[in-house]
């Protein structure tokens, strides 16, 4: 099933759509928490603080959108309120672990340096993905005349990507070479996540 077809199916079923929004909210929240964990105790940058704050706001915004479907749905991030909860929880964590392993091998960094490098490369990979995912989602929401909107998130994610590229240019002149490797890792994990969601959504046909 193509990604846009999968999203169409999700958006047409209220309960599943609420879980999808909650799943996105969970991932935005997890991303914000990981950015905060990567902060240097004293040398944290303004951009890093901005990113953490905006990712937290995205998590809140997506969670609040669920109320347009049914205010009683998906009040927590418990497994039964997420789509493909195991794959969802593993996605960002696995990307972080695998990226750290690669970055440590090629750059030989201290603990604090590795945390910052992971913030740069993992956030870059996630922003590249967000720049693909949210516009497709918004197009389907518009087509289905949904009350849900993610246009504000799209604009901020585009800004994040530009900021990450600026920081990566300062970090290493050959960052693109290493970013390609991280993007390959992310693609594999993303495909696993989407496949797990597709399997769950396919079960709706037999429910």
Automatic annotation (TrEMBL):
Lineage top rank: taxon: Bacteria
Which SUPFAM superfamilies does the record match to this protein? Ferritin-like (SSF47240)
- Name the UniProt record assigns to this protein: Uncharacterized protein
Identify the species of origin. Answer: Chryseobacterium kwangjuense
């Amino acid at each position: 099933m193509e990604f846009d077809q999968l999203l169409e199916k999700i958006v047409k079923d209220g309960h599943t759509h609420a879980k999808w929004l909650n799943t996105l909210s969970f991932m935005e929240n997890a991303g914000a928490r990981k950015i905060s964990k990567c902060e240097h105790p004293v040398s944290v940058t303004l951009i890093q603080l901005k990113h953490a704050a905006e990712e937290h706001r995205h998590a809140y915004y997506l969670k609040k959108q669920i109320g347009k479907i049914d205010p009683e749905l998906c009040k927590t991030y418990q497994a039964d309120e997420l789509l493909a909860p195991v794959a969802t929880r593993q996605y960002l964590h696995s990307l972080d672990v695998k990226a750290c392993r690669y970055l440590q091998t090629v750059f030989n960094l201290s603990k604090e340096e590795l945390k910052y490098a992971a913030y740069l490369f993992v956030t870059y990979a996630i922003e590249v993905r967000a720049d693909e995912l949210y516009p497709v989602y918004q197009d389907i929401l518009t087509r289905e005349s949904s009350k849900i909107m993610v246009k504000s998130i799209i604009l901020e994610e585009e800004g994040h990507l530009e900021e990450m590229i600026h920081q990566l240019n300062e970090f290493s002149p050959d960052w693109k070479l290493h970013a390609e490797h991280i993007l390959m890792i992310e693609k594999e994990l993303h495909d696993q996540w989407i496949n797990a969601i597709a399997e769950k959504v396919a079960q709706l046909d037999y429910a």
